[in-house]
Design a protein that fits this description.
357 residues; alpha+beta; five-stranded mixed beta sheet; two-stranded antiparallel ribbon; 9 helices; 63% helix; elongated
């Protein structure tokens, strides 16, 4: 009857191994561990029942010990197999994190294994992609900032050398030098503002404001450039619209949008600002009669230093719309761009009304 006892022990071992491999396919770690607990109880219990049967028929302690040892070994081996499977899934995520920490921004973790580990790997991959995008944006920022700083600096240096060599009258270069210094100052201010937006250090001091007055102020500042370009400025304003905003920052948003619209509007065209109250917010639209925005540019025009035509020189550094987006979002609003059915482009943004949350 020893053979019968060995058969019971072997059956316990095989059943435990089969259950362990089946548990590896459970979708969650919780189910795997719960199954392991059930296995640890079920296999020994089945073995005890079998041992009782053997004992009842044979009365041999060694045979009972063999059956119990077989069931215990099955539970231990099943636990080791399952633990190894879980550890391998976690190790793959850990290896990817080590690669990312060492500077490989393309490192990604395989999305496999139980649901908890799959979600962990997916979250890690999202984080890694965001970090890679952030570093790419930073490299692009440094490259374009260097380019846009170098141009006015080179011009200033050339004029200073000409003055030192006595090749020009200082009075002839003073207006140009002043313009170049103003360009540098504006770029440095824009970079500083972007740094504050990116770091979350930008704060807004909200006050109840009649938005039409802010729009009118921005229009007054834009009129000289509009006159030089022979572009008509139009305004359709709800004079009673009020919002909790920081007026200077909203005026800067409008100035950036108006400057962008004027640059893309041909002579004898027009730029219009619409201000209207809605149930939940205030909507402001800046529309032009230019050529519109290419489809591929609609999703990218709020990126810093992005220009639709890289070959065409631009008056600005390409930061105005990026700053406008940051300032609008700091107020709790949204900003977007679209093409008008009548031709031209429209950039719209919203502001929360007084009393809204």
């Amino acid at each position: 009857m020893i053979g019968l006892a060995l058969v019971v022990a072997a059956a316990s071992l095989v059943a435990g191994l089969a259950a362990a491999f089946a548990l590896r396919r459970a979708p969650t770690v919780w189910l795997q561990l719960a199954g392991l607990a059930a296995l640890s109880v079920g296999v020994p219990l089945a073995a005890v029942l079998a041992s009782g049967w053997v004992m009842f028929h044979m009365g041999a302690d060694r045979k009972i010990l063999a059956v119990a040892a077989g069931s215990a070994a099955a539970a231990v081996i099943a636990a080791l197999v399952l633990a190894r499977s879980i550890a391998q899934s976690i190790r793959r995520v850990s290896d990817a994190s080590v690669e990312l920490a060492s500077g490989d921004l393309s490192a990604r973790a395989p999305v496999s294994g139980p649901n908890e580990i799959s979600r962990l790997a997916a979250a890690f991959n999202t984080m890694a992609a965001n970090i890679e995008q952030l570093f790419d944006a930073r490299r692009e920022l440094v490259a374009w900032a260097s380019h846009d700083l170098r141009t006015p600096l080179a011009s200033i240096q050339a004029m200073i050398e000409a003055l030192e060599d006595g090749l020009a009258d200082p009075a002839d270069y003073l207006p140009t030098l002043r313009d170049q210094v103003r360009t540098l100052s504006r770029l440095v201010d824009d970079l500083f503002e972007l740094a504050r937006i990116d770091s979350g250090a930008l704060s807004v001091e909200l006050e109840e404001t009649r938005v039409a007055a802010v729009v009118e102020s921005a229009l007054r500042l834009a009129r000289p450039e509009a006159s030089n370009r022979k572009v008509e400025l139009l305004a359709y304003l709800d004079s009673e619209a009020t919002a909790r905003v920081e007026p200077d920052k909203i005026q800067r948003v409008l100035s950036n949008l108006l400057t962008n619209a004027l640059r893309h509007t041909p002579s004898d065209g027009s730029v219009a600002v619409h201000l209207e109250r809605r149930p939940d917010d205030i909507l402001i639209r800046v529309e032009d009669t230019g050529s519109g925005v290419p489809a591929e540019a609609l999703g990218r025009m709020f990126e810093r230093f992005w220009r639709a035509d890289r070959a065409r020189p631009a008056d600005g550094a390409g930061l105005g719309l990026a700053i406008a987006r940051g300032l609008v979002e700091a107020h709790g609003g949204k900003i977007w761009a679209e093409n008008r059915a009548q031709g031209g482009a429209r950039i719209s943004f919203t502001l929360p009304t007084v009393g809204s949350t």
